[in-house]
């Protein structure tokens, strides 16, 4: 007789093993899609011109330091600030980079804090001034939106702080780190002038990014710069600030480089200027034309123009 052969025990257990593995997959830590969306990493593109301007004017930028500084700012620090801001704002209407923001969770807050910590750790090789700058920037960005301080409620203060820290302060951080310069070098006239130009740029851009959020800001009790100015007033204010900014750029290039760079800058920003003018005429007829999509279009045209110009400037000055 031939003995009955039972299947190996391992074969009988295989389906159970597969089911166990499948069940464990549901317990693996994963970042929620809503958290990733609120970090708004692509939105860092709009702040890239500050970084590129610092690189283009650098006397001797170090390659690895430049790459590391870029990753720290645009992949860690800026998304951390975006996430922290979103967590405390809990926006229901459109925000920068998100037309329909999903609900936020505690995970967003924790992820933002982890990214902040990683930025500080990775910044150590670039020196203590850069790490200190990251810490100060992070503190200001948290004070901007945290409900116990919420600088966002104060239009002029928040406008100045956002323009200074996202502009001149970041420019000087990057400039010092990628060139490994002494702090005293940052006091040179051409460096201070260039840093000031970045803040002037943001002083014009910043109120325009708030122009479609008046209802949402009013619901939270935030008197932003754009709410203070009104929709039409925001356009007029931006026009005046950019007039001052472009004049300052003309004097900067005339004194330290060549006037031709100013005219290239104007050519790069021409599409944004044309769109801004066309949009203003629309708003004069109907204020509801100041909406999210047109704001993002202006942001993209402005960011593209300045990014292209500062990238070209770096090539011209270094090669």
Tell me roughly what share of residues is in helical segments.
over 70%
Shape: globular
Number of helices: 13
Give the termini distance in whole angstroms: 89 Å
What is the CATH architecture assignment?
Orthogonal Bundle
What's the number of extended β-strand segments? Answer: 0
In sequence order, what are the helices and strands, one letter per element?
HHHHHHHHHHHHH
Low-pLDDT segments, ≥5 res: 1-14, 16-21, 23-28
Average of per-residue pLDDT values:
88
- Would you tell me which CATH topology applies? Farnesyl Diphosphate Synthase
Q: Rg, please? A: 24 Å
User: How would you classify the helix and strand content by structural class?
Assistant: mainly alpha
Q: Briefly, what CATH class?
A: Mainly Alpha
How many domains in all? 1
Please indicate the percent range of residues in DSSP E strands (runs of 2 or more).
Answer: under 5%
Describe the structure.
By secondary structure, this protein is mainly alpha-helical. The longest helix is centred in the N-terminal third of the chain and has 27 residues. The protein is globular, with a radius of gyration of 24 Å. The chain has one domain: Orthogonal Bundle (Farnesyl Diphosphate Synthase), CATH 1.10.600. Helix 3 packs parallel to helix 7, helix 4 packs parallel to helix 6 and helix 5 runs antiparallel to helix 6. The protein contains 13 helices and no strands. Helix content is 73%, strand content 0%.
